[in-house]
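Work through this protein:
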Amino acid sequence: MSQAHQNEVNEQHTAKVIGVTIAAAVGGFLFGFDSSVVNGAVDSIQQTFGLDELMKGFAVAIALLGCAVGAWFAGRIADVWGRKRVMLAGSILFTVSAIGTAYTQTIGDLLLWRVLGGLGIGIASVIAPAYISEIAPARYRGALASMQQLAITLGIFAALLSDKLIQQAAGDPMNDLWWGLEAWRWMFLVGVIPAVVYGVLALTIPESPRYLVGRNRDEEAARILQEVTGEAHPLERVKEIKLTVKRESRSSLADIRGPSFGLHPLVWVGIWLAIFQQFVGINAIFYYSTTLWKSVGFDTAQAFTTSVITSAINVGMTFVAILFVDRIGRRLLLLIGSVGMFIGLLMACIAFTQSVTTVVDDVAEVSLPNPWGVLALIGANMFVVFFAATWGPVMWVMLGEMFPNRIRGVALGVCTAVNWIANFTISMLFPEMSKVVGLGIIYGFFAFCAAASFFYVRAKVSETKGMELEAMDSVAEHSLSDYEALRAAKRK
């Protein structure tokens, strides 16, 4: 085979892998869309159902409890049903949730539909990165796994843009738009379109080779490896996968137990990465940015427009992560991101401490006088820039590849569930705490978490760039053997 022909074949396989990755990552789009579409509707939900600040936060955050449950069980269900069928189940949950939320008449109904949508988000948050990491060649895996986060950011952008367009068409989210439905209800109903697209695409992509090997469908797995990824020796690759899948098939929660407070050291690393990604406050912006900017003096249209601009920045900077994650590595990107996020959050913290409250006709109005309003915008968007280029995608890349094969499914489920619980905590408490202690203290806490994340990554996180998933076993065993040696030395 000539070099030119070989290059052409490689390009064809690269295109196939990218195409399959994009199809799977539509789950990430729904993840971003469904979790952020509430941004434009949250004040209308509060007004429609007469909610206080804490209950408003609960109505937004309850979806995240569904996310945690979906994430917890998704891996195990996928091992039985297959990745494609679980993706299809997620699509159905998204669709039902979008329709139910649009037509809800009581707060109880709303909470139910939000939880169902959360189950779909939780499934997508686990299955999409797991599927992509399983089908992507090691040399491209970081960039392709980052496609999941790109899809999430595009989903966030699409949700906030559609919220803005619907608000603009109706004049106000509480006004009727079409078919006698208020505009805020249409914000949710639009989600049916990407949900159906996700279901159709899930039917067209090949099954994960690792799942097929686990079901003793070796020839089919070899064919997919050869046709999609261009694997030169697919049968040998299947044998490698088979060895690790046998260990995986016996995995359970007991397998992630270890010496570090009852858990494997790598699982603790994953848990803390998941916590830090949420405790820097990213979703305080993407769930409440419209409310946030209105609370400091922006009118409704300005608040919606600012939210869209922020989400567009989020999309653009994710391309930076895709460009660099396989070049300079995961660990360095996380460290850079921690520093940048800290500076941006500190700027926002300082700005919000300068807010001024005036009373007009017995109504308290909060504003940020110049130059503090500008500083808050710069700080918040600087934070988004660094988060989107680093912690946003890289945390998911790390969780998809850092664990040894025998515990990957269980460990990924645990860490993703923790990520959603951390998200729930921040999202539920943000409205009430903003009222009680003020935005300055809240953003100071976020800045502290960003600083802490830098020192944690520097001390505990190892680089995984360019390693095959099967190679993670030896890395994990090395870390455990070091611990066992230390414990033996102490006994002596």
About this structure: Residues 7-205+250-491 form a domain with the Growth Hormone; Chain: A; fold (CATH 1.20.1250.20). Residues 3-7, 469-492 have pLDDT under 50 and may be disordered. Strands lie at 176-178, 181-182, 356-360, 363-367.
